[in-house]
Design goal:
The complex is a heterodimer of chains A (about 375) and B (about 500). Chain A is mainly alpha-helical and about 375 residues long. Chain A has helices spanning about 1-5, 25-50, 55-65, 70-95, 100-120, 125-155, 155-175, 210-225, 230-240, 240-245, 250-275, 290-300, 305-325, 330-355; strands spanning about 15-20, 355-360. Chain A has a domain at about 90-300.
Chain lengths: ~375, ~500
Amino acid sequence: MSELALRRPLMNRRYTLEVRQQMAWPWQALILTGSLIMGLLISGAILVWAGVPAGELLNEFVFLTLFDAQSLRAVLFQASPLIMVGLAGCLAFRARFWNLGLEGQMIFGAIGATAITLWEIGSPAMRLPLMVIAAMVCGLLWSVAPVLLRLKLQVNEIVSTLMLNYIAINFLLHLMYGAWKDPKDAFPYSPKYESFELLPDLANGLSLSFPIAIGTALLVLWFVSISRGGLYLRFVDKSPQVARSVGVPVARTILLAVLFSGALAGLAGLMIAAGQEGRLTHSFYVGYGFSGILIAFLARNNPIAATCAALLIATLFVAGRSLQVFYQIPFAMVQLIQAVLVICVASSDFFIRHRIRRVQMGD
Amino acid sequence: MSKPNAIQLTGVSKTFDGFKALADADFTAKWGEVHALLGENGAGKSSLMNIVAGLYGPEGGSLFIDDNPVKLRGPKEAAKLGIGMVHQHFKLVAPFTVAENILLNLGHIQTSGLYRERLRRVSEDIRTMVDRIGFNIDPDTPIHRLSIAEQQRVEILKVLLAGAKVLILDEPTAVLTEEEAESLLTTVQGFAREGAAVILVTHKMNDVLRYADQVTIMRGGRTVTSLRPDSVSVDELVRLTVGESTTHTDQPSAERTPGEPYLRVSDLTSTAGRRALNGLDLTLNRGEIYGIAGVGGNGQSELANALMGIPEPVQGDMEIIGGGDLAELDAAQRRALGIASIPADRYGSALAGPLSIADNFALGDIHSGRYGPFWYLKTRAIEADATKAVHQFDVQGVRSLKQKAALLSGGNAQKLVIAREFSRPPRLVFAHSPSRGLDVKATEAVRERLRAARNDGAAVLLISEDLDEVMAMADRIGVMSAGRIVAEFSRPADRQAIGQAMVNHV
């Protein structure tokens, strides 16, 4: 094929694809932003096709969601658990551990927190801190098995973490339809949390979970950029082979990052249970695990970018709900838009890694 | 005069990234002969043959096939002209059968017919060929079930069935046992008797003496001479291959008295795969450079890995006198003992190319807590130390410490590795081909660092396939062959004797 192209006399010019060594970060940022805008434009087109008037799109998505105090609160409220799962994704992926089990870890985090409420452990004042600890420990424990299996026996974590999600979900259903079912309710829910077991609101009506999420993002940023663990993690991420031979404790670094990841996912589970639902339900987690993977991916595993991406996804969630109400657009549309964004950003990678150059053919 | 020329190369040059692999090389192989191409590692043998096989384009000179000038545009064109090369690393698809692999290679010849039909025809051709040349290969066996020697036979079948009349074998006996090598070389000798031209790229003197009709010797990218192997003595062949001593360097005027033993390696043996290491013993003293010479592929890489703490399946003892078992030490303990490692593959095992110079440098002394506790990196301290080291070790091309290490040239990357490894005074240094790919100035700088470490009392182990380097640097020389030290020499060492030991496999 290529030989033919070369011999054609008129084709004295052609385009070649070159692999780029590196690209300055402002350009990278520009290309990423461009691809996000592209994704939003495509999403807009899909929404218009689905029946949303084109003139209303900007209104719905930007003005009514971000410039309305109540909606903005809803966005930030929605964003907190997304930030947490996004950060969890960033940490694990930086260790080259494809943790697809964020959802299972969230579920166990929420189960751990709920256990504290059901068994009424600790005084009312101590209840919430204990729930936080229990959520983190349970999320962490749910990631122990796959990471140890990977480190000791090279068991592929993509499969093990993904499958553990189903175990977690079915265990949750087992509790919801069985021992932990609220006797006062026909639905498969746990009893409602007491008021002191809920994440409180701040004075301005903002849930406490948002500052916690921002604080965690800064903590993760600290860890990955100015700690020795972060230095090790960079080696594991960028040059795993070199890491081993220059004395980076590779296994311990992966273990630490993954357990940290699991703990954050557990905390995300608590944020939904104790922040949004006020109880454990059988479906609170739906879609969060995968949103976390997506956020980490959109953010290139950068904790600050992950926070921004989580806010974007939260905006989509909130706007999606109002679209549902006002235009009867199914909520699945939100997931479709997420997918479009991911595909756009993924394909922008091609332009960051390659350069298209026109070459003048010689002889 | 008797036989016509099959392949002729005149005045061929080839440069890789500034390194001259071939300089004005000439080569002629005739029909009906087994022609050996002899030389040390890096002499340019493989590069020269890759030009014949159409893999590399030459930068100067010309190539004649059957006395016709040709310009090859790729390996397919070379194959059409009857040139077949069997590479050192096999190019076979492991889950496919022998017949499928061979069919895959015949794409440009047999294109008509249904796949099943073509596969059947190829299988028949294989059976016929196998019967004729006495290879015991079944076309329906998947490649991964075959031994290395059998896979090599498949590679040979592949080029023969593609119609090769000029057969180039690149180090064919390197992976074979004695008997396998014998049977292979007898077979290819048979091809030559039937009129084909066989080119045997090798560094084994025995293969040349027993099977070659003609031998061309290469050294440093040039063809030194071409002669009949029975017309000269073995000593003469060795001399032509390893060359006269070209470096008359730092023979220290004062006799160096070796210090106490510091590292004792005993009975180091590979536990997986072929026995790359096979009962290796050596003792390394303080205040000396111990050079390991040898033809590449005799276990040097495996030894380097085992010593440098890069995962390698070995058993045996590596005892640091007064410091315990080397294999048991973790990175922090190795650093604390002053063990410095300079691996051969800079970007494969010493530097993380995508990370910054500062990050790469920091690992040198990170375990001691000098750069802060686990949760906090003293970035300033790292940068101050790195700046100092970059100056002291003359690492050039550093515009910023945040720059990616991959942007450094080979020589400067190596200096950065040494700067990191020597950030604490070294007591035990492992260096594997430390000047490979470096220019003269950088090479001298690297060697100077190793000598300085030695003069300060460090025990230095230098593993190098470049005999000149070992001769120039080492106080004692061990020759490595087939996974162990077969001979030791003290300075001043006799180059001829070392060359003999290198090529006389036991």
